[in-house]
Every structure is written in structure tokens, then in C-alpha cells.
Design brief:
The chain is mostly helical. Helix content is about 70%, strand content about 0%. It has twelve helices and two strands, in the order ααβαααααβααααα. Strands 1-2 form a two-stranded parallel ribbon. The longest helix is centred in the N-terminal third of the chain and has 25 residues. The protein is globular, with a radius of gyration of 20 Å.
Length: about 230
């Protein structure tokens, strides 16, 4: 039986932290500028389509939607998506990995915007207490019920979870951190329904979109690696 000393455990911990730090340092000016430009550039087109796409079809509620209680306290979790999707950018180890994630996000956005334009949808008009002046009131005023299916909030969460999970595994991060990554993504998905921004149908649409792009990006990443690296 192999025994590990406290020094060995400390070395293992230091190793994965060092690996993550090295990833963060790599190309950081490009990461910061690119992520900021992409995030800011997304919203004008998103809201323009919401305003001009035409009459939206109101999505039906399912029995599952009725089980999800309105929970405004999870609004910070819902908004945390914008920090969460920055993590795979921050942890990209090189230009190829950064480009792969960026292409995936761009493809998801383009596909969703096409659907929003040609098949505009909206969630039902829920009766909720969004007191003026609060964060929830601001959210409901700015991001109205349109552009519902597929949920980009969900697709970005799922896609980021897959890519981030891969990065954490490659860096040798502990299991608890990889589980936290999954839990964060699940919490964001749940919050989209708990704050009444999405219903089950568009959540499922976003889930499929995120999974497909996550799978495609994994295949692209594997194919791009030299044969010697795949065996490591």
C-alpha cells in the first residue's frame, strides 16, 4: 500500500493551484478585453431582436413549472452567470482553447438569435411582486419576457460547465471543486425558473443547445491535440 506524507499532500495541492494560476496569467490582456467586448456587444443585438421580431408566441406552462416556487432570493445566482461564463475564458491555457470556447459561445448565440427572430417566444405573464426600485423590478423592466426559447442563460451555463469541468480536470483540481462547478451551473439553471424568467420548455431548449455545443467543442479539442498528448 502506498502512503502519502503531509508534504506529498501539500505538493499535490500546490500543483493544481499553480496550474490554475498559470492558466489565468496566460493571455490575460486578450482575455479581459475579448470577454468585455463580447459581453457588451451581445446585449444591443439581443434587445433589438426582442423589440423587432414581431408577435411572440406565449409558451405554455407545464406541471413542472407549477412545482417551482417563485424565489426572488436566488436573483444573485441568476445574475452570477456573467461571472461564471468568464471563468472558462480566464482558465484557457492557450489561444486554441480560448478560440474554441469563443467559437462555441458565438455559435450558440447565433443559433439562438435566429430562432428568436423567426420564431419569437415569450413566457406567460406571471403575477409576481417586483417592487419598483428593487433588483427584480429592474430585471423585469430591462429583460422582459421575450426571447424565451431557447434559454441562452441555460445554454451558456451548461456549455461553460462542460468546458470549465474539462479545464479543472486537466489542471488536476480536486473533486470538490469540480462538483462545485456542476452545482453552480445547476443553481443558475434552477434560478431561471425560480425568478420567473424562463419555463421548462425553453430551459430544455437551452439545455440541448449547451450540451450539443459542449460535445462538439470537446471533439474539436481532442482532434486538435497531438497523438502524444492524448495518451497523457
Amino acid at each position: 500500500m502506498t502512503h502519502f506524507s503531509s508534504d506529498d499532500s501539500s505538493s499535490i495541492s500546490t500543483r493544481w493551484l499553480r496550474a490554475l494560476w498559470l492558466r489565468c496569467r496566460t493571455l490575460w490582456p486578450l482575455k479581459v478585453v475579448g470577454n468585455t467586448v463580447a459581453t457588451i456587444g451581445f446585449f444591443p443585438l439581443y434587445f433589438w431582436i426582442m423589440k423587432n421580431a414581431g408577435q411572440a408566441w406565449v409558451l405554455p406552462l407545464t406541471a413542472f413549472d407549477r412545482l417551482i416556487a417563485f424565489w426572488p432570493a436566488v436573483l444573485p445566482v441568476y445574475l452570477s452567470l456573467w461571472g461564471y461564463i468568464a471563468l472558462p475564458v480566464l482558465l484557457a491555457k492557450d489561444k486554441r482553447e480560448l478560440w474554441s470556447f469563443s467559437i462555441g459561445c458565438a455559435a450558440m448565440t447565433a443559433l439562438a438569435l435566429v430562432v428568436f427572430w423567426f420564431m419569437p417566444t415569450a413566457i406567460p405573464n406571471f403575477t409576481i411582486d417586483a417592487t419598483p426600485g428593487t433588483s427584480l423590478h429592474f430585471l423585469k423592466t430591462v429583460d422582459s419576457a421575450g426571447n424565451a426559447f431557447p434559454s441562452l442563460h441555460v445554454s451558456f451555463s451548461v456549455f461553460s460547465c462542460i468546458v470549465l469541468g474539462r479545464q479543472l480536470r486537466d489542471a488536476g483540481a480536486p473533486a470538490w471543486l469540480r462538483l462545485f462547478n456542476v452545482a453552480w451551473a445547476v443553481a443558475i439553471v434552477y434560478s431561471t425558473m425560480a425568478v420567473r424568467q424562463h419555463v421548462l420548455i425553453d430551459v430544455l431548449g437551452g439545455l440541448v443547445l449547451g450540451l450539443v455545443l459542449g460535445f462538439v467543442s470537446r471533439e474539436r479539442g481532442t482532434a486538435a491535440q497531438p497523438v502524444g498528448m492524448r495518451a497523457v
